[in-house]
Amino acid sequence: MSQNAQGFSFKVLTINTHKGFSASNRRFILPELRDAVRATAADIVFLQEVMGTHETHPLRVENWPDTPHYEFLADTMWNDYAYGRNAVYPEGDHGNAVLSRFPIVEYQNLDISVEGTEKRGMLHCKLRVPDRDITLHVVCVHLGLRDAHRSAQLDMMCDMLQALPADAPVVVAGDFNDWQQRASQRLQRCAGLDEVFSRKNGKPARTFPAGFPLLRLDRIYVRNASASHPQALPRKPWSHLSDHAPLAVEIHL
């Protein structure tokens, strides 16, 4: 976070936490993931597939935290956090979360599931920018695996984004599962969003699988803001902490 006469800047990170397990599901790596996320010094963190509660994992998984995973990750670094519970099953639940150094004044989790498919959500938070009369809107998303479902979910995203104040700064980030690269054009046309890696390199970053990224699944979009230094974080240590490479960027208001 930095502040000067020209404006206000902050760092954003997005990562699919894979429910706290390694890409192979063989190891519980949440404590290592917390250290790695803290080391980025991000001001706002977008999390997908983050665990809320689970009844049986604490009985058999060593180092399982007493708190929900998003609280464990927030720890003392991010005072404010919001969780959107999407998938609910007999043992527990998981969803999206936002960790923030700035006050979250309001949030809502919008159900963008398509009937008969895995539950998906869109977590919309309103943040108060320090020492400025500005509300920052951040949206953490995780879209479906099938093209038709993503298309319907993008329509729902467009409706929500079009309802936001036209001059408000907006950051949308998460796992779009958009291997066909259709989302950016839709979101630019309907909501004026720009993808930060595409602005610089012409295409979104390769993020999946983390060990040898081929597919461009994860995104960071902005509106009424500029961005600099977009980067997909290096394989070490990240490739054994998630199946998706995390993305980071500096955003300027």
TrEMBL record:
GO biological process: GPI anchor biosynthetic process
Alphabetical list of Pfam families matching this protein: Exo_endo_phos
GO cellular component: membrane
Superkingdom, taxonomy of origin: Bacteria
A molecular-function term among this protein's GO annotations: catalytic activity
Membrane-spanning residues: none
Location of the Endonuclease/exonuclease/phosphatase domain: 20-244
Gene3D superfamilies: Endonuclease/exonuclease/phosphatase (3.60.10.10)
Record protein name field: Endonuclease/exonuclease/phosphatase domain-containing protein
